[in-house]
Amino acid sequence: MVKILRAVVAALALVLALQPAPVASQTVPTPESVLGSKVGADFYLATYDESMEYFRRLAAASDRVRLLEIGRTSGGLPWTIALISAADNLANLDRYREIALRLAHPEGLSEDEARALAEEGRAIVHIDGGLHATEVAHAQHTIQLAYDLVTGDADPEIRSILDNVILMLWPSINPDGQNMVVDWYRSNLGTPFEVAPMPWLYQKYVGHDNNRDGYMINMIESRAVTRVLRQWEPQILYNHHQTAPFPARIWIPPFAEPISEFVHPLMWRTVNLLGMSMAQALEERGQHGAVHMGHGFDNWYPGFMDHANNFHNVAAFLTETGLYRYATPHFYTLDDFPERSQELRPQSLYSSPWTGGWWRLGDAVDYMLTASVSVLDLAAKYKTDLLFNRYQAARDVIESFREGPPYAFFVPQKQRDPVAAVELLRRLAFNGVNVHQLDAAVAFEGQSYAAGTWVILMDQANANFVRQLFAVQDYPDLREFPEGPPDQPYDVAGWTLPYLMDIRVIEAAVPIPAALRASMSPVEGEARAWNDGAEDASVFDSVPGVGFDSNRTAAGIRPPAGRAVGSGSSLVVDPAQNNAFRALNRAWEQGGRVGFEVGSAGSGGRYVISGLASSDALVADLALQARRTQGRGSVIKQPRVGLYRPWAASMDEGWTRWVLERYEFDFSSLYNADVRAGDLLERFDVIIIADMGAARILEGYPKGSVPPRYAGGIGKEGVRALDRFVRRGGTLVTLNSSAMFAVDELHLPVENVIADKKRRDFFMSGSLVSMEVDTSHPVMSGMPERSKIFVHQSPVFTVKDGFEGSVLAKYPAQGSPLLSGYLIGEEHLKGYAAALDVQHGEGRVVLLGMRPQWRGQPFGNFRILFNAALYSREMAALTPANDDFWTPPEPSKEGEKEAEDEDR
Ligand SMILES: [Zn+2]
After folding, report:
1. pLDDT digits (tens, 9 = 90+) for 726-756
2. What is the pLDDT, as a whole number, of residue 535?
3. Contact 131, 239 (CB under 8 A)
4. What is the distance in A from the centroid of ligand 1 to the CA of 126?
5. At 567, phi and psi to the nearest 5?
6. Which of 133, 647, 751, 873 is the most buried (most CB within 10 A)?
C-alpha cells in the first residue's frame, strides 16, 4: 500500500507540474477555430500535431481538461493524453486513482471496504483515437469528443458523465502514424492518387501489427500504453477501429467465437452490455447498420491491445466503424453490396440494415461519437458496480489460484539462453505481474530449485494474464459439421510463451507451503512501484542485452552475470544465446574478427570472437556464458546483408528489420529499384526476403493505383538479378511464403507438398510445432535437436530430381508435431522437410518454412534468422555433409481423392 501511495503522489506531482492554471473566463475554443476546418469535414484530416495544438488550447481554456505527458513515440514525437472530468474530480485525481488501484489489487481489502471505495470512487474509462492510422476517423473523433464533453453543460447526460467518470482520452495511440497518413493524403489530395494506399508502414516497424503486440510489448507505443494503463487501472478500455464488415456501418461486441479461456466472465458480460448499449444509442439517433458478433472478430489471440487487458480484469473491447478511404466521401448503391446483404433483411444482431448512399468521414466520426458517449454514459450510470466488479473480479482470480493449479510457476535461472528468461519476466513485470525470487535453494514437488530461481505466485490479480500466455492452446474445433471446413482463427491459434521463447518453466501443481513462501522475496521494486516513473518510454528500449532496464521492477530481474571460463584471447560463444549475435556484431564494429567452429550432429556450431584488446565488456554487458580459447575458428568476413523492402509495405519486413536492429546487425534496405539495378553480388553477400507472397514481390502496387515511383515490384528484371546474384555465389534467404517465390521464380527442384490441399484436409494456422533439426548445419547452430518452431501458413517441402543441398529441419515421421495451436491433417507433414539449403549455381537459397522472427516473439527461433543472415559463401563452404539426416517420405497412399463438396 505504501508503494501505491508513493506512486500516486509521484504521478500526481507530474500531472500538476504540467498544468498551467486554466483561466475560467476564457471561452472554450471550437475545433474549427483552431484547426480551420470542422472535425470530419470532407477531404480534411487533422495531423497529430494539429490535434495536439487543439488539445493544448482546450486545456488552457477549461478546468475540465488536464494534459498528461506520457513519453515519446518510436518516431520521437512527444506524446500527450487528456484527462477529462468535472473540475472537482480533477482536483481529487490522486484519490480517485488510488481507489482504482486499490480495487484492482484487492489484497487485504474486505468486501465492505471495497463497497465503500466503489461508492466514493469515479469510473475511469480509457477511450482512444486508435492505433491503425489509415483508419482515420477515430483520431479525428477524439477532438470533437473532448470539445463536446467540456462544453456539454446543457445536456444532463454529459453532466452526469463529467460528475461520475474520469475519461482518459488518448487523442491517438499512434501519433507517428497519424502524421504520416495525413501528410500522405494531403500530398495526393485532388490528384488521381487521392485514395492511394501509403507505400510504407504507419508505424516505424510494424504498421498494422501494432495491434498484435499487446502482451509482448516490443514496440515503444505498446509499452507507453501499457504503462499508463497499469498506472491508472481504468475499469473500461475502448479501442476504436474502422474496418466494419461491409455493408454494416459499425461492428460492435459481443465478440465472435472463440474467446480466450482465462478471462473473468464479468469482463465478457460487461463488454456485451456495453455493446448492446452502444447499438441502442446508435438506433436512438437514427444511425443504422450496427452489427455484432460473427465476421471473424473473435477474441482468441491475447495480443490485441484491447484484449490483452481483459486478463487484467479490465472490460476492454474494440469497435470497427465503416470506412471508405481517408476523408474522401463515397456513394454506395445496393449493387455494391454482397448479394446476401442486398435483401436488407433485419436480423437479430443487425436490426437496421444499412441501405447504402453517401458515406463520409463525418458519418464515421458521428457514429464513433455516439458509441463513445454511450460507453461513458453507461459508465456514469453504473460507476459503482464497475468499480466494485473490478474488485470482485480480482478477488475471484486470486481465490481461484488458491483453490486450484497452477499455484505458481518456477523459472530457473539456468536456461539454454538465460537472457531470454529475463526478457520474458520483464515483460510480465511491465504488464503488472509480481515476480518473486528464491532467497535460498529449496526442494519442492521432487524438484530442486537454486537460490535466485524466479517464482510467479499465481494468487495475484493479474494471474489470468500469466496463465493465458503460459498455457498450451488447443484451438476449439468449431466446424459446423464434421466434414466441414475448419473455423479460421481471426489471428493465430497458439503462442505459448515458454515454448516460443524456449524457456524452461515448471508449474506448481500443489499449493505453495507457507515455509516456501517465506523463503522468497519480491523482486526489487514491485510492478506498481515502477509505475511512478516519468521516464521517456523510449529509454526502455535503449539498453542492449535485455530490454526494459530503466523500468525499476524489470531492472530487478537480471540474468546471471556473464562468465567466460578457460583461458586464451579468443571467446567462444554458443549461439543458443541470442546475445551471441550482439557480441559478434559488436566485435565486427570494434574491428575484431569472427570465426566459426563447425558443429557436428548433436553439437551445433559455435562462433569465435578474436582480435579484440579485451572481450570482458562483451561478456559482462551481454551476460554471456562463454569459453576462452586460443583458436580463432574459421574466420569469416562480415557479410553485407540486404533486407528486401517492398513499396507494398510488409509488416513482416518491418518485424525482421526490428529484430535485426535490436541484435545490432549491420544491414541495408533493398528497394525494388535496387534489386532491378542488378550487380547485387557487388553489394551484398546475403539478401533476405521476409514472409510475403510472390505478387507483392513481383508486381507490387499496380500501375495507376499509386504515384508512379511506388508502382510495380521487382518484375522479371529483378528476378533475373536475384537469380544471377545466387548463381554467382550469393545467398538468398527466404522466410515462409517468400520461399515459394524463390522456388517458382528461380526454378528450384523443390515442391510444396501441401500447396493443393483443401482446407478441410490440411489446416495449420499460427501454431507451435515440433521439428527435428540438423544442428550441424550452420543455419541451425544453437538450436536443440528437437526444436519448438512457430509456423503460420507455412510451406512444407520435398525435393525433386536435381536437388543439391541440405535439409535443415523436418517434421517428425511419427506422432503429431503440434505443440500448441491448431492443426488438421498432420499426416501431410510427416517426415517432410521444413527448411532447405538449396544449391543454385555457385550460391544457395535458404528456404525457411517457418516464422522464426514472428512479431518479435519466438526468442527460441531468432537465431535461425541470425545464422542465415551470416550464411555467406564462406560460411556455406564450412557446412558438413549430413546426407543421413533426411530421406524423402513415401508419398501418401490416399492419392488425391477429393470429395464432391469442395471447400468454398
Ligand atoms: Zn484497425
Report:
1. 999 999 999 999 999 999 999 999 999 999 9
2. 35
3. yes
4. 17
5. -140, 160
6. 133
- pLDDT tens for 566-605 read 999 999 999 999 999 999 999 999 999 999 999 876 789 9
Q: In this structure, are strands 436-438 and 454-457 parallel, antiparallel, or unpaired?
A: antiparallel
CA 132 to centroid of ligand 1, rounded, Å: 5
| Sole residue written with cell 521444413 | 834
Distance 767 CA to ligand 1 centre (A): 23
Instruction: Read off the C-alpha cell for 140.
Output: 479525428
- pLDDT number for residue 26: 65
The Å distance, Cα 46 to ligand 1 centre, comes to 19
Q: Indicate if the pLDDT at residue 549 is higher than 60.
A: no
- Give 488 Cα–ligand 1 centroid separation in angstroms: 19
The distance from CA 748 to its chain's CA centroid, rounded to whole angstroms, is 34
Question: Residue 326 C-alpha to ligand 1 middle, in angstroms?
Answer: 13
Spacing, Cα 522 to ligand 1 middle (Å): 38
CA of 316 to the centre of ligand 1 (A): 15
Nearest of 234, 142, 136 to residue 185 by alpha carbon: 136
Distance 318 CA to ligand 1 centre (A): 9
Q: What is the mean pLDDT of residues 175-197?
A: 98
With 80 as the cut, is the pLDDT of residue 145 above it?
A: yes
Beta carbons within 10 angstroms of residue 837's beta carbon: 25
Average pLDDT of the residues of the chain:
92
Cα 733 to ligand 1 centre (Å):
31
Q: Quick one: cell of 732?
A: 538468398
How many Å lie between the centroid of ligand 1 and the Cα of residue 128? Answer: 12
Across 57-70, b (16+ Cβ under 10 Å) vs e yields: bbbbbbbbbbbbeb
Q: Cα(242) to centroid of ligand 1, in Å?
A: 6
